Amino acid sequence: MSPPLQRLAGQVAVVTGGAQGIGGATARRLAEEGARVLIADIDAAEMERNVARIRDAGGEAEGYVTDVGTADGVRMMVERAVERWGRLNIVVNNAYAGVFPGDAVALSDEDWDRAMDVGLKAMFRAAKAAVPHLRQAGGGSIVNLSSVHGLLVAPGWLAYEVVKPAVIGLTRQLAVEYGPDGIRVNAICPGHIVTERIQPQWDAHPSGLRFFAEQYPLRRTGTPLDIANAIVFLCSDEAAFITGQALAVDGGLTIQLQENLGVRLARYAQEQPETWLPY
User: What pTM was estimated for this model as a whole?
Assistant: First the structure.
């Protein structure tokens, strides 16, 4: 049997926040599809572990320690990928500084600025640095990570609830701006994804994870691989006529009528009174 066709063979990709979680799985999937991947992350140890995983599996990857919350960090990241492999075809803007809690009264200026710098401004800067190289390559793909919080909002998380819808707005504008250059720009809106960092919480409180899963029509929460597969699709020629979209990869979470969901969860809570909730 012949090996599977690699959809991204010969292409060069940059993945921010690519050490673990969604970014880590995305870097591995891009490499599996034949892309050469620059993993940009602030965590050098985790980054190198993911680079090693890709290389051990026969892929090509390199790590680059950077803070995408700075202009130089983004610019030098893009320059390193082009310097290493001579071109750039794919940019996945995944990095985020954290979910800073607080409403407009409680949130500090410093947390607001950090959320904007890493969660939104870094994507603007990545486009500024990458578009000339994507043009030179004859086009390419940018995928920005938004969230279901880009489509719906929750109280108590002002910075996150502002950043994620703004990512969708940025995505649409870039798609219109650079479509004539053959550059496609899309956003992914994940639901609750159980990453390596979150897994210990759910291992300690499995009833909480079951409650979260109950909220989804598919009756499960997501995995990093679920999101990585969607990103690979958007970067491939199979998505050649898709741009400016905010794709919800959320197990159906955002399509439900909220009244019905509320009733169903109330019944679930009656049947499972010991359910642990994270907030």
Answer: 0.95
Cβ contact 193:221 at 8 Å: yes
In a domain, 279, yes or no: no
201 domain residue, yes or no: no
Quick one: which of 11, 3, 79, 1 has its CA closest to 232?
A: 11
First to last CA, the chain: 51
Q: Which two tokens stand for residue 113?
A: 């600025």
C-alpha pair distances (Å), 277 with each of 64, 103, 148, 216, 241: 37, 21, 19, 16, 41
| CATH number of the domain that residue 80 is part of | 3.40.50.720
153 domain-assigned: yes
Domain limits for position 97: 12-196+221-251
Does 54 fall in a domain?
yes
In tens digits, the chain (279 residues) has pLDDT values of 344 679 999 999 999 999 999 999 999 999 999 999 999 999 999 999 999 999 999 999 999 999 999 999 999 999 999 999 999 999 999 999 888 899 999 999 999 999 999 999 999 999 999 999 999 999 999 999 999 999 999 999 999 999 999 999 999 999 999 999 999 999 999 999 999 998 999 999 999 999 999 999 999 999 999 999 999 999 999 999 999 999 999 999 999 999 999 999 889 888 888 888 777
| CA atoms of 133 and 144, how far apart (whole Å) | 18
Output the CA angle 88-247-61, nearest 5 degrees.
Answer: 30
Which residues are marked as active site?
A: 160
Looking at the structure of the chain, the number of domains it has is 1
For the chain, list the strands marked E by DSSP: 12-16, 36-41, 60-65, 90-93, 140-145, 183-190, 246-249
